[in-house]
Amino acid sequence: MDFLSLFIVALMPILETLIVTGVGLFLGMERINLLGAISRQSLNKLVFFVFTPSLIVADLADTITLDSLGTLWFMLVNVLITFLIGSALAWILIKITRAPQHLQSLVIGCCAAGNLGNLLLIILPAVCEEDDSPFGDSSVCSTDAEAYAALSMALGAIYIWSYVYPIMRIYANKATKDIATDGCTTRDNISGETLCLHSEIGTALLLPSEGCPSSEECMYQVEVHSTGSEGKVKVMFLENTMLHLKKLIGHVDLQKLFAPSTIAAIFGFIIGIVSPIRKVLIGDDAPLRAIYSSGSLLGEATIPSMTLIIGANLLRGLKGAGVGPALIVGIIAIRYIIMPSLGIGIVKAANHFGIVGSDALYQFTLMLQYALPPAMNVGTISQLLETGESECSVIMLWTYAVATFSLTLWSTIFMWLVS
Questions:
Q1: Are 56 and 157 in contact (CB under 8 A)?
Q2: Main localization of the protein (predicted)?
Q3: pLDDT at 372
């Protein structure tokens, strides 16, 4: 199939997403105010607590079985690789641009976590339904696309709250600690003790480590006592890694880890894998099929609701500021140039060694996971940590605007490579 035909196939789902996003932006305008701050917050709660969990449970239960997990296991690794590469590149970007500390957690989140949920649920089935689709029969393709998108969405939800959230929390706490330190006034003339003035957020989030003069020394140095001498020496690589791991685990919030979407993913896997439960809930003769049908019906509201919220949230970015152009360009370069290029090499290497099967749609999905814009949950986490909220809207505006063109181009390239 020629490149132009593939480009048109890739363009259609992006245009659909863009139109619905535009509707959300329009409804969020002050003159319309159908998706104002209060309405947006209420709809976002419905999506977070009801629609998204229903969609994940319904799609996973219907499409994922024990046999399919045996063939799709590499997606679990692939999604993790996208998060690891993104966070590593974000760290390099922070060092190069010398990003302000209150924005570092936001940069990490935007580079590490891609929108693995609703965008794939829109793009993959839409590509399958196009007449010139390179993925064969549309009905078979749509069924497989639903399974791939559902698994991607579930894994994305799990990794965001188990990996990205703790990292963002570490950087947010560090920024808060520096702010609190700058607000310290030394001197109590009677006792000679230091008096520190902490803001409310500093008091809430700052968790100082006992016996550590600074966080950097805690992470990179240990006190060594030997018979010959004693002093501080650089820790070896393995010990350094363990220190980072322990610090990361210490910032894992179990309440956030078991978010509704994570719990829904667990239930979806159980229903899909355990055959007796599956037969009771799914199928024309299933006695409890009404429960599954109700959950599926609720889940269908997820995609339009999330896309409308994205559009309304982007409106805030038009009014925001405070993010340097170097940071925005760096995030765009990481998400839309470096990561997709690396993704091609990783997926092709996995295919070469027989880790990934010959299914063209599956390979296309794995590559596409490297080219997606930042996850909207990054904005939610920024609100929870009370850092970089307004700047997040600006970054989302620019990254999603550029995604309109980059996703179309990369989707075309990916289809050309696998077809």
A1: yes
A2: endoplasmic reticulum
A3: 93
